[in-house]
Amino acid sequence: MSKEAIENNELPKTNFLHQEIDKDLQQGKNNGKVLTRFPPEPNGYLHIGHAKSICLNFGLGNFYKGGTNLRFDDTNPTKEETEYVDSIMEDVKWLGFDWVGEPVYTSDYFQQLYDWAVLLIKAGKAYVDDQSADEIAAQKGTPTTPGQHSPYRDRSIEENLNLFERMKNGEFKNGERVLRAKIDMASPNMHMRDPLMYRIIHAHHHRTENEWCIYPMYDFAHGQSDFIEGITHSICTLEFEVHRPLYNWFLDQIIEADPKLKELPRTRQIEFARLNLNYTVMSKRRLLELVENKIVEGWDDPRMPTISGLRRRGYTPESIRVFADKVGVARRENIIDVSLLEHCIREDLNKRAPRVYAVIDPVKVVITNFPEGEVEWMEAGNNPEDESMGSRTLPFTREIYIEREDFMEGAPSKFFRMDVGREVRLKNAYIVKCEGITKDENGEITEIQCTYDPDTKSGMEGSNRKVKGTLHWVSVDHSKQITVKQYDRLFMDEAPAGHKDKDFKDFLNPDSLQQLNNCWIEPNFMDAGGEFEDGIKRFQFQRLGYFCLDKNSTEDHPIFNRTVSLKDSWSKQK
Ligand code: ATP
Ligand code: MG
Question: CATH code at 44?
Answer without folding.
Answer: 3.40.50.620
